Amino acid sequence: MNIRNVTTTPFGDQKPGTSGLRKKVAAFQVPHYLENFVQAVFDTIFDNGPAPAGITLVVGGDGRYYNRQAIQVILRMAAATGVARVLVGQGGILSTPAASCVIRKYQAFGGLILSASHNPGGPEGDFGIKYNTGNGGPAPEKVTDAIFARSKLLSAYRIFDAADIDLDRIGGQALGGMTVEVIDPVADYAGLMESLFDFAAIRELIAGGFELCFDAMHAVTGPYAREIIEGRLGAPAGTVINGVPLEDFGGGHPDPNLTYAHELVEIMFGADAPDFGAASDGDGDRNMVLGRGFFVTPSDSLAVIAANATLAPGYAKGIAGIARSMPTSAAADRVAHKLGVPCYETPTGWKFFGNLMDAGKVTLCGEESFGTGSSHVREKDGLWAVLFWLNILAKRRQSVEAILHAHWAEYGRNVYSRHDHEAMPTEVANGIMAQVRTRCAGLAGASFGRYTVKFCDDFAYTDPVDGSVSTGQGLRVVFEDGSRIVFRLSGTGTEGATVRLYLEAFDADPATQRIDAQLALAELIAIADDISQLKARSGRERPTVIT
Ligand code: VG1
Ligand code: CO
Q1: Ligand 1 within 6 A of 491 CB?
Q2: Which of 15, 18, 381, 420 to mutate to test the pocket of ligand 1 (most atoms within 8 A of CB)?
Q3: Which residues are catalytic?
Q4: Which atom of ligand 1 sits closest to the CA of residue 488?
Q5: Nearest residue to 274 (alpha-carbon basis) of 287, 261, 291, 257
Q6: What distance in Å separates the CA atoms of residue 86 and residue 346, rounded to the nearest whole number?
């Protein structure tokens, strides 16, 4: 075997964020940048030595620009570090939830997922890489911290000299002493979905004239949605739109929200809209759910799924508990309370759910950022959420809107919105956070119109399973009636800083529950600006994205 030991110097900026290391493609193309990070991962997980004998790794990505090149590098470095076998999705494709599924099913040591998720792609866009552990979930903070620490000390990496592997040919190929197995990226995942949901009932619903539209946004879910929705569930061809994965996502921003998934939004709010619409993001872990002329907030979606979980065969015995990220609305808490199961509040990022799922404390997890999932894998799962909704609709035979209205009437409505102020100059964003921090000290008891501040804090979390503590997870202003304003800086952006403002108010009265969220939250929006001075400090009149 021809293994080269390449001398290198550390980069200093290889700190994984909310979900892996994300940078501009150009940054990853700087010589040694990718290799350094991969070596830091291998050194961390293999204790600075060779890989343990006989292990399997999983590698795949969302198909964005640089995916194939990066996979070839990772394979050669895995061979150089003594990995026995690597499973790679055909064409280098594996959605994030499918990668999690494959890691678990084949009891792999872990996996490398190549994606910058909802960030734009292409040569001018973003690239990303993250490590998932043997449970199929994103590496916890103690591992990502160790990877960063290692990256700052690197002096060399090891790579095997060989020709490229053919990523399009299913089957085994040798790379030195390592076997690369190119696998069908869809089959294992589709099988898992079929084991969880009532496909016969959904097929019958669709055969009966129920119309749906799934927007894959030219990202990774295209092949998955075609196989499952048009194939196994019998929806007509064309149900999946933008279904061919493109390296630059067709120039779009593969983020399934009301702003970036505008093609789907226009269809669902237009004349003759289908009964159901959904979209997923770059790597297939997010979902947006729409009814005819109706948007379901991700926080409400989690609550509705929890309340109706037993309608799906995989959850017929009920759920053990729910976990939601701190900024996610408390709608799910109300369902958990009624079901008599615990509800956990974690920091933002799926890596915080893994321990709770591994310990059997929760079945369902969700984030307000269009992330919903369960213990079937250890990642949020876009298509899973869409299939859960279809299963519920097939059983309840009501419209999406009617299901939400009934849910609010029963549980009350946690009116919710998120305002993103993207790509701000970093010092402006830091100034806004500092302002909020200063204002928050001593704000308890203060009144703003009908709202009285109960407490303000910087959210910190102690993991109930391993006791690890995570601090600095978002500034909260919580009012006496449970309404909240939260400020957080994004940990996934690659340009300047993004300030996220999360707003939540509770409305128990069915007479006012159907008011537009921005109107219902107007007073809180004004209070948030008073506290943060965001408009004055940024010179911006409105958010870049409102959901
Ligand atoms: C965002 C979301 C967070 C999500 C993360 C990764 O992080 O807010 O809820 O887990 O993206 O999602 P941040 O730090 O930018 O707010 V994905 O689909 O990009 O992997
Ligand atoms: Co994603």
Answers
A1: yes
A2: 18
A3: 117
A4: 16
A5: 291
A6: 33
Q: How many A from CA of 370 to the centre of ligand 1?
A: 9
- DSSP character at residue 20: B
Look at residues 87, 91, 83, 90 and name the one whose alpha carbon lies nearest to residue 100. 87
**Which residue in this structure is represented by tokens 């920091």?**
347
Ligand 1 atom nearest residue 368's Cα? 9
- Token look-up 């001593």 returns 442
* Rounded Cα gap, residues 520 and 415, in angstroms: 7
pLDDT of residue 1: 60
pLDDT tens-place string over residues 445-501 = 999 999 999 999 999 999 999 999 999 999 999 999 999 999 999 988 778 899 999
Cα distances from 103 to residues 94, 142, 309, in angstroms, run 11, 20, 25
How long is the chain?
547
Compute how many other C-beta atoms are within 10 angstroms of the C-beta atom of residue 491.
16
Q: Catalogue the E-assigned strands of 233-332.
A: 240-241, 276-280, 287-291, 294-296, 322-325
CB 147, CB 131: distance < 8 Å: yes
Compute the half-sphere exposure of residue 345: CA atoms within 13 Å on the CB side of its CA.
Answer: 13
Contact (Cβ atoms closer than 8 angstroms) between residue 89 and residue 185: yes
CA of 348 to the centre of ligand 1 (A): 7
Tokens of 159: 């790579």
Distance CA 113, CA 71 (A): 10
Take atom 18 of ligand 1 and give the residue whose Cα is closest. 117
Three-class SS of residue 462?
strand
Cα–Cα distances in angstroms (integers) from residue 442 to residues 431, 434, 439, 533, 535, in the given order: 19, 15, 8, 17, 23
As a whole number, the mean pLDDT across the chain is 96
Question: And the tokens for 244?
Answer: 């061919």
Whether residue 118 contacts residue 255, with contact meaning beta carbons closer than 8 Å, is answered with yes
Identify the residue whose C-alpha is closest to ligand 1 atom 19.
117
18: Cβ below 6 Å to ligand 1? yes
Cα(127)–Cα(115) distance, integer angstroms: 6
- Best residue among 348, 421, 544 to mutate for probing ligand 1's pocket (most ligand atoms within 8 Å of CB) is 348
Q: Which protein residue has the closest C-alpha to ligand 1 atom 10?
A: 349
Residues of the chain where predicted confidence (pLDDT) is lower than 50:
none
Taking the C-alpha atoms of residue 514 and residue 120, their distance in angstroms, rounded to an integer, is 34
CB atoms under 10 Å from CB of 267, counted, come to: 18
